[in-house]
Amino acid sequence: MALSTLNADQLRGDLERLAREQGISQWDLGASCSTDTSVQVDRGEAKQMKGAQRSAITVRVWNSDGLVGITSTSDLSESGLARALGGALDASAYGNAADTPAFSPLATAPLQPREQRLHDPQTILQLLDTLKDAEQQLLSRHGAINTVPYNGLAQRSSERLYLNSAGANRHEALTTASLYLYARAEEAGRKPRSGGAVRLAHGAAELDIAGCIDEAAERTISHLDYAPITTGHYTCVFSPEAFLDLIGAFSSLFNARAVLDGVSLSYRESIGQKLAVPFLNIHDNGLHPGNIGASSFDGEGTPTARLSLVEGGVLRHFLHSEATARAFGVSPTGHAGMGAKVSVGPDYFEVGPAGDGAGGCGQLGLDLNRSSEPIVLIDSLSALHAGVKASQGAFSLPFDGWLIQGGERRSVEAATVAGDIRTVLNNLVGFEGQPRVTPDGVCPHVWVQGLSITGEA
Amino acid sequence: MKTPVATLTSTIPSSLLECSTRLESLLAAGRGAGADLVEVFLERTDHLGLLAEQDTLTSVSPAFGIGAGIRVFLGSRDGFVSTNDLSDAALFSALDQALGMLGLQRNGAASPRFEGLQPLRDYAGDKGDWLQRCPLLQEASSRLLEGTDLLQRHGRHLQVRRGSYARDWQEVLVAASDGTHSHDIRLHQSLGLNVLAADGDHRASLGRRYGTTDQPDELRLWDADAAARDVCDSAGTMLYADYVEAGQMPAVLANRFGGVIFHEACGHLLETTQVERGTTPFAEQGGQPIAHQAVTAIDEGLSSGAFGSLSMDDEGMEPQRTVLIENGVLQGFLSDRAGELRTGHPRTGSGRRQNHGFAAASRMRNTYIAAGPHSPDQLIASVDRGLYCKSMGGGSVGPTGQFNFAVEEGYLIENGALTRPVKGATLIGEAKEVMPRISMCANDLELAAGFCGSVSGSIFVTVGQPHIKVDSITVGGR
């Protein structure tokens, strides 16, 4: 079969026949294929241009004992499918009888209509010209910006589908594009500094290239004048991106799979209990228009939907797969992957003040530049893979940011911020500004008091 | 219950070597179009992942795949296209796309500039039965469950016990228009034990990972009891540890995975990919001191069984032993084909990639600081007040050379002796500043397996070092 598109009817026909031949009566399948092109540049020259055609399927089968096995492959040929089915059947002999997934009861439910126009790809030479121009513009913004060492302009056309032997038939196509510019600046006798920006869109022609250049330049230049910070406890203001990163790193708080596995800070009985200050709301909304690359269904075919996680500081719902939902006696929420043991994960967070005002809104009129005390503005967090202990609630993370004192802003030299996520959620002071749409979610600036900052002063 | 077949991989086609003749016409066509060099990387993979939780096998995840990556060079530029489809039509389509990126087009004529592939350098040799010699599912799952059972026996307050096993088999064929024609089979196996200990508000999560290359019996030879004791001892200690007090202090980093500090803080900056980008402070410092004279550092792909060892790199070149730093003086960089082209540093057999979807880049293999003359006790005794980092978590390095590492298991050093355990520490700094502060190296070099994610994907590596002392480093904490 052609690898550039997924033919659901042909796949279903092949699978039904092959499954019958192997004595398999219950199966499901997730498949995807994509075509990518991307470019990188280095001081006006093409550095690397890449293209990729990818395809992948994951097939699950239920054996005669009701146990589940799985196999994944990039080979979508008939022989590849046959081998995948056989491998999954072999693996099913080792399925976990205590936690067997089933088809999602929502795998055939109507999907929420979405307006996501598919864009024709640009030629790679068009991408190259666009990126060369963006690099040149960024280099010209300040004499200290000498390179843009990390940059890329990419576009993708992709399709995915979910089929099962009970008749579920999900299919969607998507186009996306991304631009990142990460500049390096250095002034005589000073350490090199860096800053960057990212933009996503449904097509390369829609990318906010000027905005990306402006933001990358502003961030880089703003870090040129830096100073070490004195170690101590500070009120910190997280940028929307930084706070969303932190919430994402501790999303096991909301993850039913992690709760069942005993690696979440939450418990079954945590639903309905206070988790944060009363003026905090957190939702997961994979269908938010800002979620570029959103899927309308999850790995089990369950429709994606907006879900309230925290309302007025109280934990309201967990993210679920079919199996975890069954264990909790609720409906799947559209957050499942696909596997013998199905993973669960968030899509796109919406963080902000509680809407009804019942819990208060925290301090109003917060303004970084009018604060009388020293404030640390945390622009971006690094190394979340290494500095977060999700099952303990602890984090210790390097960050880029500024110390703001007496209305003056100065970049912070190498420093870390450390704390406990439960303390953070209960030490929120309030929000500043309007929620901002970012690639990972929607969030305003968030004020948190009493965080530990370690600097080199 | 259905009886499993002997192996999940019994239908793997015979060999990628069947493709060599087809590749010659592809390379000739690329050269005929005007490319300076065309390289094709073919792979076939077979993966098995197992997860055991408490006393149950909870996930069995087999996967297999095929793919090709075609790279075309013209001057210092290159175009790269990957595909899952190994048909002639798909490979020529990928070649056309790569040529088009460089403004080239196939003209249908064979190139007089391509003299054919050299005789095959076949590193696969006696590796053909490696996959079959690995433990079957029944044996592998039993060993893993033995591990989680031993955790239960040796640990206290364990809320979660996990064992994981991954077996990655890969057959690769590299053919290039300069005649390169190399074939290999690789086998990587890794094992991990992880626990979450909890007692009231106290929590500690710890793990250990072990990995080898080219040793089908790895899982059979694994000392599960020693591994479980090691994890449980550390978890028991760290469960009640206080948070470390932040500040500047001397630190002694233990051997084995302590080597991640050199890997992140310095090793990445000695890859030619960083030289090309202008993101290493060491680019122009060859032959000059960049570290304390106590430091000699090496990267090689040769240590038997080590996770980062190779018979050939992903560009078909045999790996070398590359001295990076000798007595504090910068000696060399790690280079791949593109790195040699763009920076002039000769190739070192370090061209590596996660799979066919990535172009090869200069990457580390087994990277370590060489042993020194001291005992570990001498290092600790030399510190009045500092931090002993017995076990390191992950880390990263930024575009300006700033690095960070999480300390998984730490102890205070007071008056030259280890005292109480501390948690929550992060080491941060800049490579250029920390390397001269590694003032003492002990005599107990050991290696540890790890994974490294960078420009060409996630690859198997080894880090290593003896115990080392850093005179002063920033410790982030509470």
Structure, described:
- The complex is a heterodimer of chains A (457) and B (478).
- By secondary structure, chain A is α+β, with helices and mostly antiparallel strands.
- Chain A folds into 3 domains: 85 residues, 2-Layer Sandwich (PmbA/TldD fold); 95 residues, PmbA/TldD fold (2-Layer Sandwich), CATH 3.30.2290.10; 233 residues, no CATH class.
- Chain A is 20% helix and 37% strand.
- In chain A, the strands form 2 sheets. In chain A, strands 3-2-1-4-5-6 form a 6-stranded antiparallel beta sheet. Chain A has a 5-stranded mixed beta barrel with strand order 8-13-15-17-19.
- In chain A, a hairpin with a 2-residue loop joins strand 15 and strand 16.
- The model of chain A has no long low-confidence stretch (mean pLDDT 93).
- Chain B is of the alpha+beta class and 478 residues long.
- Chain B has 2 domains: 223 residues, PmbA/TldD superfamily (PmbA/TldD fold, 2-Layer Sandwich), CATH 3.30.2290; 235 residues, no CATH class.
- Chain B contains 11 helices and 23 strands.
- In chain B, the strands form 4 sheets. In chain B, strands 1, 2, 3, 4, 5, 6 and 7 form a 7-stranded mixed beta sheet that branches. In chain B, strands 12-11-10-15-22-21 form a 6-stranded mixed beta sheet, with helices on one face.
- Chain B is globular and about 75 Å long.
- Chain B starts with 19 loop residues before the first helix and ends with a strand.
- The N terminus of chain B is likely disordered.
- Classes of the chains: A alpha+beta (457), B alpha+beta (478).
- Chains A and B meet through strand 2, strand 3, helix 2, strand 4 and helix 8 of A and strand 2, strand 3, helix 2, strand 7 and strand 16 of B.
